[in-house]
Design brief:
6 helices, single chain, mainly alpha, 0% strand
Length: 98
């Protein structure tokens, strides 16, 4: 959903095909750079970067509707990642965005 909003825009927004294509190309390039960065990390660096302990804390909250909270966490996390142009020192800022 975060990718779609960045490329197509918010509901009701009218974007030209050229603007959508540029947004898609930019996201693809940033995403590939991010993946390349992850591939260069050793196991410990990857653990430190992902901060799955923080994600676990964030997801450990008890809420009424199963799945809705979790989807919101990931939606906000990836929204932050895109807003930061995939340039984050760790995923903690993404996980804590929810």
């Amino acid at each position: 959903m975060a990718f779609g909003l960045k490329i197509i825009g918010r509901p009701g927004e009218s974007r030209s095909s050229e603007k959508k294509a540029r947004a898609l190309q930019t996201l693809q390039s940033q995403h590939q750079d991010f993946l390349d960065q992850l591939k260069r990390l050793n196991d410990q660096e990857l653990v430190d970067f992902l901060r799955l302990d923080v994600l676990g804390e964030v997801l450990d909250k008890r809420v009424g509707q199963v799945g809705r909270y979790e989807r919101g966490v990931f939606q906000e996390a990836f929204k932050v990642l895109i807003e930061e142009q995939f340039d984050v020192t760790s995923m903690e800022i993404c996980w804590r965005a929810a």
